[in-house]
Each structure stands twice: as structure tokens, then as C-alpha cells.
Amino acid sequence: MAQHAPHEGPGLLTDVLADAGVETRVLRLDHGDELPTPGDLGGLVVMGGAMGVHDVDEFPWLETERRWIAEAVRSDVPVLGVCLGAQQLAAALGASVTTGPAPEIGVGEVELTVEGRADPVLGPEGERVQVVHWHGDTFDIPPGAVHLASGARYSNQAFRYGSVAYGLQFHVELDDAMAAAWAPELPVGVTLDIEGRRAVEAVGRRVLSRFVDMARRA
Predict the structure, then answer these.
(1) Which CATH architecture has domain 2-217?
(2) What is the DSSP code string of the chain?
(3) Residue 39 clears pLDDT 90, i.e. is over it
């Protein structure tokens, strides 16, 4: 699991992976941890972060991570990219990542596309999915990928490449500890109401459990 910032940890994934009996290792790229060979891994999760995919002068490991992700996809290793991780996955697959019209921050929802409603990971949630947004960049859907979800302000919110690589622009992994870590980092005046977070947490446990189950079968 690749982590890029102290407040952007695995959140709910810790419990979901533990419940599934999956051994995990968190790599702190912001601390200079080296990346293992993707083929030696059962799966790869790439978390969020405040930096953008083009900030390579300040964060040169971004390019290394993209090559790592691309190798994982070529090796059919299950991949889950969240927020920055989704942008990194999109870029690794040849798609453009650009700055959006305005930051999208807070509890909200996305609408699943026709393909999204048929997707084994997201589809069981129905037409609309409660999520948490915190992003200002967006990505094109990579060539050959399937567009899974859209939003009112950002049309590309999720995609699947092949059968085991997922990019989610939004967050569903937020638990209480992660929300507390986010609080001092959020823009002034922005809060995440507890009722909305609880709804997203319920979604996250289901979605992440289905991804882990799928990854174990792959």
C-alpha cells in the first residue's frame, strides 16, 4: 500500500484487509521507502495526497510510482487507486490529468454509469453512491478503460481497466481516525458532517470488501 502523506492513510482498508486475513505493508513514499517488485505482490493500493501528478520537480518519486503502477497492471496485479492514486493510475495508462474548474470538497455522491451499475465492485451500491470528495484535479478515462461513475462537477469519477485495476477519484475509506487527521488539513470553513461520514463509511466497507474479495480471486 503506497501512502503519500501522513493524513492520507489506509483508513477502513486496515479493518477490511485484516478481516479478510490479508497481510499488508504500508509504504511511505514521502519518507523515501523503496517500492517492491509488483509481481511479488498480491495487490496494490495507491492512496491520496495533496500533490499533483505533474509535481515531479518537488516529488520525483511520482514518476517512479507511475512506472511501478504500469508494471503492476501489465502483470495483472489487482490495483486500487484512490484520489491521487486514481490520477496516477490514469497517467500510468496514458490518460491526461488536468486541473479542474474548482476544488470539490465534502460529503457528496456520484452517479454510476450503465457500466458502473454492472460493475462487480461498485454496481451493488445502486445508481448513486455516497462518497467524500477532496480533489482539484481530474483525469481523462484511459484508453481501453471503462467509465464507471460521474459527478455533477467532475464527470470522470471512477474507471476500471481490465478486470482488476480500479481508479476512484473519490474517497470511501474514511474512518473516524482518518477524519480526525483530515480535520486540520481541510480548508477553512469546510467540515465533514458525522451523519454523512457514517453513510460513506457503510458504503466504503461494502465497496472495499468487494474489491478485496475480487482481488483474492484474481
Answers:
(1) 3-Layer(aba) Sandwich (3.40)
(2) -EE-STT---TTHHHHHHHTT-----EEGGGTPPPPPGGG-S-EEE---SS-TT-TTT-THHHHHHHHHHHHHHTT--EEEETHHHHHHHHHTT--EEEEEEEEEEEEEEEE-HHHHT-TTTGGG-SEEEEEEEEEEEEPPPTT-EEEEE-SS-S--EEEETTTEEEESSB----HHHHHHHGGGSPTT----HHHHHHHHHHHHHHHHHHHHHHHH-
(3) no
